[in-house]
C-alpha cells in the first residue's frame, strides 16, 4: 500500500512539472476553441465552417471578406472585377496582383485560376457542391498578352456575380498538374462530359493523382499562397498553423485585413463540451472562445473576478431564429391562422430566456441595423393572445364546448386546430421556444405538441413536408439579398420548406436578387418584408448576437456578425503598457 | 477444447453477421440527405445554387457514395394492378448496396467514411489507439481496486456498512455527473487546479520519454478516475456478496478449524471461489473497452471510439458506423467465448458443452 501511495505521489509531482513545461511549449501560439474537427481540408471539399476557416489560412482567393468594412475586398486579385454584360452573359475581368506568388516563388497566374475551375468541374472528384455553387461560371478566357489577366464568362445576370465569382480558393497548377495535362480540355468540355475521367486517359490520370495526394488530411502536400502552413493536425484533438516567415502580401503593407496576418502561430483546440471549454479559458489553456453559450457568456461577464483576465465582445449577427409554417397543411393554409399563431410567441421573454438578452427582434428577414432596406414601418412581433383569438375567429375557427377549435374545410369535412412544432434537438433554445408556444396556445385551447427531432430526421421531415410548424435557423449576410433558396416556389422540395410562394412573390424575389440600383432594391426589399408580414409563411423571432470571450492580453479580434465571428489572423497581443 | 471453440465460433459468426446485416439494412433505409451541405439550402446569403443544381448535386453525391443502388437483393416496389397500387417484392440482382458492402467486408475492406473519405479501417485503428490505453487502464485499475476493497471489507467488518453505502451512492451517479464533478473539483481555478481540464499531452521536441509518460498519465488521470468510479461500485458489491456467501461455506469452516489465519482463509480459499461470478461481469466489460466511453471522451475532449461512433451516427456516416458496430459485436461474441473458457479454467468441474 505504501508503495502504491508513493508511486501515485511520484506520478503526480512529476506530472505537475510536466504541466508547467506544456505552458512553455504553447507560449507563442494563440489557442482558439473549436467545437468540432475540420474533418477534411481538401480545398475543394471543406465540409464545415472550421474547415473553411482553416483553408483560408493555407490558401487564398481572388476576393475575401474584410470584416471591418463588411464587404468583399481584393485579395489575390488586384481589384474587384470589371463587369460587362451581353444579352445572356456576364463577363467579369480580373487581374492577379504581380506580388502574389506560390511558396516556390512562382507567380500566381490566370492559368492557375483556369486550372482551379477545371478541377472543380473535373468528373471523378468529390466536387459536386462546387459545381453547383459556381455553376454560373461557364468558361474562362485567358488574356494572351497578359498572363495575369483573365475573363470569366458567366451565364445570366446577377449583381452577386461580381463577388461570388472570386470567392473560392485558387489551387496551384504546378504541383498537381506539372505537365499541364488538363490544359487541352476546356471548362465547357469538362462540364459537358460527366464521365470525362473514363473517356480521356489524361483526365483519368489526373484524377488518380489528385486522390493519391490525399489532400483531405495532408494539406501540406499542396502549397498554398495563404499566410500560414500546417504545423500539426491530430484529428479530434488540435490543429496548429505556423506563419510563413515571408508571405507575398507582407510587401503590400495593405490596410485590408485579409492581406494581414499577425499571430506567429494559431492553435485550434477541439473541445466538444462547452463547460470544459469555459474551464479551459478560465485556466488560461485557451485564449479565444468564439460562440460561447449565452448563459456562460453572461455569467462570466458579470463575474468581476474575470475582468482582469478576460474580455467579452458581442456583435450583431446575421443569424436568425424563425418559426415557420408549412402552409400545405390544411389548418395553416389561410394567412389569418398563421398571423394568429405568430401572436403567441413572447419574443422579449424568449430573448431573455434563451439568449440572456443577447439577441434582438426584427420585423422580418432583414437585420434592423441594415439601413434603409429594413422596413421600420412594420410592427415588431408582439405577444397578444387577444388579437390571436380575434384572428382565429376571423379565419373561420369556432371554439367548441371542450375548449378546442373547429371549422369546416372547403370539402365540408370538420377540421380541428391541432398542431405540432418540430425542431432540432441540438439547441436547447428551440425547446424553450416550443414550450412557450405550447403554454400560450394551451391557454387559448389550441393543442400544440412539441416534436424534438434528430437533425437528419428533422431535415427529412421538412423535405417531405410532414411537419406543421417548425423552428429553423436562417443565415444572411450584408452582401446580397437572395430569398430564392428559402421562399421561391422553385425551391419547394429543396430549401423552401414552408411551401409558400405565389407568382407575385417569386417575381419580387427575382427582382430583388437582380436589382443593381440600391435605391430601387431598398423599395423592393421593403415591399417584400410587408408581403411576408401579411402572408406570414414564417415569423422571425430574433437575430442572434455573436459572442466571443478572449484573454485580456489580446486585442484586434475584429469581432463581427459574419461567421466565424472574429478574425484569427488579425489578433495581436496588447502592448505590455496596457 | 478446440472442438468447443470451433462450435462456439460456428454459432457466433452467423449471429454477428445477422446483427450487422440488420443494422446495415436499418441504417441505410434512412435518408442520407445530410451528405449535401446545408449551406446550399438554408441561406439567404446569395452565392447559392439554384434548386435544380441542388437536386443535381444530391443525385451526383448519392451516385458517388453508392447510395443510388437498390438497398438489398429484393426491395418492395409499387405496381399498378387493375387500376390500384400494390406493393410487390422485386428482385434487384447483385448490384445492390448490401452485396457490395458484404463483399467488401469479406475482403477486409470496410469502405470509406462519407464525411472525410478516409478508409474505415484507418479511422477505427486511430480511434482504438486513443481509446484502448484509457479503457484498458481503467479496466485494470478497477479490477485491482475491486479486489483490494473486497478484501478490505472482509477484514474490516465494522466499516462494511458505511463503505457499502458510499459505494451504492456512487453507483447511483451517472458517468457525466462524476466526470463533471471531478472536472469542477480538480481542474478548476476556483477549487483545486491539479489536473488539466481536457485533452492529451502536447510534447515538445526535447521532452524526455519519462516526462512524456508523466504528462500522459497526468492528462489521463481525470478520465481514468471517472471510468473507475463508475464501474468500481457494482464490481465490489458483487464480489463482496459472493465472498460473504463463500465465507459461510463448510470448507471455510474446515480451514478455520485447521487453524489457518483469517487472512489466508479469505485470500487463498474463499476469494478464489468468490471470483467466479466476477468473470461474467469482467468479460462483459470487454466490449466497452473497444466501444470507448463517449461521455468521458466528450467531456475531456479525448479522441476515441466513443466520439467516432457518436459523430458517425449524428452525421449518418454509415461505413464508419457499421465498421465500429462490427468490431464491437465481434468483441462481444469473443468476450462470451472467453467467459466460458475462463469459467472452465477457474473451476474444472464445469464442463464445456458444445
From TrEMBL, chain A:
CDD domains: PBP2_NikA_DppA_OppA_like. Keywords: Signal, Transport. Belongs to the bacterial solute-binding protein 5 family. Gene3D superfamilies: Dipeptide-binding Protein, Domain 3, Periplasmic binding protein-like II. It comes from the Bacteria. Residues 72-478 form the Solute-binding protein family domain. It holds the Pfam family SBP_bac_5. It comes from Hymenobacter nitidus. This is ABC transporter substrate-binding protein.
TrEMBL record, chain B:
PANTHER family: DIPEPTIDE TRANSPORT SYSTEM PERMEASE PROTEIN DPPB-RELATED. The lineage of its organism: Bacteria, Pseudomonadati, Bacteroidota, Cytophagia, Cytophagales. CDD domains: TM_PBP2 (cd06261). It holds the Pfam family BPD_transp_1. The keyword Signal does not apply. It comes from the Bacteria. PROSITE patterns: ABC_TM1 (PS50928). Residues 128-339 form the ABC transmembrane type-1 domain. It is a multi-pass membrane protein. Belongs to the binding-protein-dependent transport system permease family. The chain crosses the membrane at residues 126-150, 162-187, 216-237, 274-300, 320-344. Keywords: Cell membrane, Membrane, Transmembrane, Transmembrane helix, Transport. InterPro entries: MetI-like (IPR000515), MetI-like_sf (IPR035906). It is found in: Cell membrane. This is ABC transporter permease.
Amino acid at each position: 500500500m505504501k508503495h502504491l501511495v508513493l508511486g501515485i505521489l511520484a506520478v503526480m509531482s512529476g506530472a505537475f512539472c510536466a504541466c508547467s513545461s506544456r505552458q512553455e511549449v504553447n507560449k507563442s501560439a494563440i489557442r482558439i476553441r473549436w467545437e468540432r474537427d475540420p474533418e477534411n481540408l481538401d480545398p475543394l471539399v471543406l465540409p464545415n465552417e472550421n474547415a473553411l476557416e482553416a483553408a483560408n489560412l493555407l490558401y487564398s482567393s481572388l476576393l475575401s471578406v474584410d470584416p471591418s468594412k463588411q464587404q468583399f475586398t481584393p485579395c489575390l486579385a488586384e481589384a474587384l472585377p470589371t463587369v460587362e454584360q451581353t444579352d445572356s452573359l456576364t463577363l467579369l475581368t480580373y487581374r492577379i496582383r504581380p506580388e502574389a506568388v506560390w511558396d516556390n516563388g512562382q507567380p500566381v497566374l490566370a492559368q492557375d485560376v483556369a486550372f482551379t475551375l477545371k478541377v472543380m468541374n473535373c468528373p471523378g472528384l468529390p466536387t459536386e457542391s462546387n459545381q453547383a455553387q459556381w455553376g454560373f461560371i461557364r468558361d474562362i478566357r485567358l488574356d494572351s498578352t497578359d498572363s495575369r489577366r483573365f475573363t470569366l464568362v458567366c451565364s445570366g445576370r446577377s449583381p452577386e456575380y461580381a463577388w461570388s465569382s472570386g470567392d473560392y480558393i485558387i489551387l496551384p497548377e504546378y504541383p498537381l498538374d506539372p505537365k499541364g495535362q488538363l490544359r487541352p480540355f476546356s471548362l465547357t468540355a469538362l462540364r459537358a462530359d460527366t464521365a470525362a475521367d473514363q473517356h480521356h486517359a489524361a483526365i483519368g490520370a489526373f484524377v488518380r493523382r489528385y486522390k493519391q495526394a490525399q489532400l483531405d488530411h495532408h494539406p501540406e502536400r499542396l502549397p498554398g499562397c495563404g499566410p500560414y502552413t500546417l504545423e500539426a493536425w491530430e484529428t479530434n484533438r488540435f490543429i496548429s498553423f505556423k506563419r510563413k516567415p515571408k508571405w507575398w502580401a507582407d510587401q503590400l503593407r495593405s490596410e485590408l485585413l485579409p492581406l494581414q496576418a499577425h499571430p506567429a502561430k494559431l492553435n485550434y483546440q477541439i473541445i466538444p463540451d462547452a463547460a470544459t471549454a469555459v474551464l479551459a479559458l478560465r485556466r488560461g489553456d485557451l485564449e479565444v472562445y468564439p460562440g460561447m453559450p449565452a448563459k456562460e457568456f453572461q455569467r462570466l461577464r458579470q463575474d468581476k473576478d474575470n475582468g482582469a483576465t478576460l474580455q467579452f465582445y458581442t456583435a450583431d449577427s446575421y443569424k436568425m431564429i424563425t418559426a415557420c409554417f408549412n402552409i400545405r397543411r390544411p389548418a395553416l393554409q389561410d394567412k389569418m391562422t398563421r398571423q394568429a399563431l405568430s401572436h403567441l410567441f413572447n419574443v422579449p421573454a424568449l430573448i431573455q430566456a434563451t439568449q440572456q438578452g443577447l439577441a434582438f427582434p426584427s420585423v422580418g428577414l432583414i437585420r434592423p441595423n441594415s439601413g434603409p432596406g429594413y422596413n421600420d414601418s412594420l410592427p415588431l412581433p408582439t405577444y397578444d393572445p387577444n388579437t390571436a383569438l380575434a384572428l382565429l375567429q376571423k379565419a373561420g375557427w369556432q371554439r367548441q364546448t371542450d375548449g378546442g377549435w373547429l371549422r369546416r374545410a372547403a370539402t365540408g369535412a370538420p377540421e380541428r386546430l391541432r398542431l405540432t412544432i418540430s425542431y432540432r434537438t441540438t439547441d436547447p433554445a428551440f425547446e424553450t421556444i416550443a414550450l412557450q408556444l405550447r403554454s400560450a396556445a394551451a391557454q387559448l385551447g389550441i393543442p400544440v405538441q412539441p416534436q424534438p427531432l434528430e437533425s437528419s430526421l428533422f431535415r427529412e421531415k421538412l423535405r417531405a413536408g410532414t411537419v406543421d410548424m417548425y423552428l429553423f435557423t436562417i443565415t444572411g449576410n450584408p452582401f446580397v439579398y437572395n430569398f430564392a433558396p428559402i421562399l421561391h416556389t422553385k425551391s419547394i422540395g429543396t430549401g423552401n420548406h414552408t411551401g409558400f410562394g405565389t407568382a407575385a412573390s417569386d417575381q419580387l424575389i427575382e427582382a430583388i436578387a437582380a436589382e443593381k440600383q440600391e435605391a430601387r432594391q431598398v423599395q423592393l426589399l421593403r415591399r417584400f418584408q410587408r408581403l411576408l408580414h401579411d402572408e406570414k409563411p414564417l415569423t422571425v423571432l430574433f437575430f442572434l448576437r455573436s459572442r466571443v470571450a478572449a484573454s485580456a492580453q489580446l486585442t484586434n479580434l475584429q469581432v463581427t456578425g459574419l461567421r466565424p465571428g472574429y478574425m484569427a489572423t488579425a489578433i495581436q497581443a496588447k502592448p505590455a503598457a496596457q | 477444447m478446440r472442438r468447443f471453440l470451433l462450435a462456439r465460433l460456428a454459432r457466433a459468426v452467423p449471429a454477428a453477421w445477422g446483427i450487422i446485416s440488420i443494422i446495415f439494412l436499418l441504417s441505410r433505409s434512412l435518408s442520407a440527405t445530410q451528405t449535401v451541405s446545408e449551406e446550399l439550402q438554408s441561406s439567404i446569403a446569395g452565392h447559392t445554387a439554384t434548386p435544380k443544381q441542388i437536386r443535381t448535386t444530391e443525385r451526383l453525391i448519392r451516385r458517388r457514395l453508392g447510395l443510388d443502388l437498390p438497398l438489398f437483393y429484393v426491395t418492395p416496389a409499387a405496381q399498378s394492378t387493375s387500376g390500384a397500387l400494390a406493393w410487390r417484392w422485386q428482385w434487384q440482382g447483385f448490384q445492390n448496396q448490401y452485396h457490395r458492402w458484404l463483399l467488401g467486408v469479406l475482403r477486409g475492406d470496410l469502405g470509406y467514411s462519407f464525411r472525410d473519405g478516409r478508409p474505415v479501417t484507418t479511422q477505427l485503428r486511430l480511434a482504438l489507439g486513443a481509446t484502448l490505453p484509457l479503457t484498458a487502464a481503467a479496466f485494470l485499475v478497477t479490477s485491482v481496486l475491486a479486489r483490494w476493497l473486497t478484501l478490505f471489507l472482509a477484514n474490516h467488518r465494522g466499516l462494511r456498512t458505511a463503505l457499502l453505502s458510499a459505494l451504492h451512492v456512487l453507483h447511483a451517479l451517472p458517468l457525466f455527473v462524476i466526470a463533471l464533478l471531478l472536472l469542477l473539483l480538480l481542474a478548476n481555478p476556483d477549487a483545486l487546479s491539479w489536473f488539466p481540464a481536457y485533452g492529451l499531452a502536447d510534447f515538445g521536441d526535447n521532452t524526455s520519454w519519462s516526462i512524456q509518460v508523466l504528462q500522459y498519465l497526468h492528462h489521463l488521470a481525470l478520465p481514468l478516475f471517472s471510468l473507475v468510479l463508475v464501474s468500481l461500485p457494482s464490481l465490489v458489491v458483487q464480489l463482496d456478496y459472493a465472498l460473504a456467501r463463500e465465507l459461510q461455506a463448510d470448507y471455510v469452516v474446515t480451514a478455520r478449524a485447521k487453524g489457518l489465519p483469517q487472512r489466508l482463509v479469505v485470500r487463498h480459499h474463499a476469494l478464489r471461489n468468490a471470483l467466479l461470478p466476477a468473470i461474467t461481469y469482467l468479460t462483459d466489460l470487454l466490449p466497452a473497452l473497444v466501444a470507448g466511453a463517449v461521455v468521458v471522451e466528450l467531456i475531456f475532449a479525448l479522441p476515441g471510439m466513443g466520439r467516432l461512433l457518436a459523430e458517425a451516427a449524428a452525421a449518418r456516416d454509415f461505413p464508419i458506423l457499421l465498421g465500429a458496430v462490427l468490431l464491437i459485436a465481434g468483441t462481444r461474441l469473443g468476450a462470451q467465448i472467453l467467459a466460458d473458457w475462463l469459467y472452465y479454467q477457474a473451476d474444472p468441474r464445469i464442463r464445456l458443452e458444445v
